Amino acid sequence: MADIVATNFNLFYGDFQALKDINMTLKERQLTAFIGPSGCGKSTFLRSINRMNDLIENVKITGSLIMGDLNIIETNKLSVLRKRVGMVFQKPNPFSMSIYNNVAYGPRTHGIRQRAVLDELVEKSLRSAALWDELKDNLHKSALSLSGGQQQRLCIARSLAVEPDVLLLDEPTSALDPVSTAKIEELLEEIKTEHTIVMVTHNMQQAARISDRVAFFLSGELIEMGDTYQIFSQPQKEKTSDYITGRFG
Ligand SMILES: Nc1ncnc2c1ncn2[C@@H]1O[C@H](COP(=O)(O)OP(=O)(O)OP(=O)(O)O)[C@@H](O)[C@H]1O
């Protein structure tokens, strides 16, 4: 595992520059929250970390994004990158298959076939996502029969099953009720010492509750990054202070 380091990172959608000269270190085994008003580039930067932006036409990137020995921008081994960097989206998107097969899907695509190994990975991942006790007797039920909160925890379990270094989460609780949100926050706090977690959130209380570090974006720029306590109690930049006190955004 290693820190993720962005240096002079720029991203353009056609002529539009969505990210401007980002210099940032995402520390390993910490949870970093990306905050900022809508359209400021948080998701674009998050998607850059596992090259999801490759799917979009006319994207141009300059600068570098490095994780230890892995050059994220230049590698042509996307399956290796995506094994090391998992992603969970805003809306739970389990596959239309059983709970077991959802979690076993990633390991199977990486060639794991032995039933005992898969069983162990499924159990470990569901335990990490705080779902094992709830679901262990129903592993062959359809994932689509679960509640929204359970589906999102299943999506986290599915990402964890390939044992990634990094977990990217794009507003993972914004479609969920407060109880499901609390469960996800709790599980992220539990797993963050074993993974580097980067989460986009519009919920400032959530960032304050569970992140170790906060990065504040505005209009494609990284305005300020620091320890969560510092950002919320003693922001160094006026724009950060205006945003967190609700003056705009
Ligand atoms: N596929 C795309 N093509 C062109 N422009 C895009 C594309 N995706 C995003 N953008 C633009 O890039 C900018 C940053 O968008 P992005 O989704 O990264 O912002 P965000 O901070 O995550 O916003 P939100 O909080 O609303 O999700 C916005 O101006 C957006 O319109």
From TrEMBL:
CDD domains: ABC_PstB_phosphate_transporter (cd03260). GO terms for biological process: phosphate ion transmembrane transport. One of its GO terms (cellular component) is membrane. It holds the Pfam family ABC_tran. One of its GO terms (molecular function) is ATP hydrolysis activity. Residues 4-244 form the ABC transporter domain. This is Phosphate ABC transporter ATP-binding protein. It comes from Entomospira nematocerorum. Keywords: ATP-binding, Nucleotide-binding, Phosphate transport, Transport.
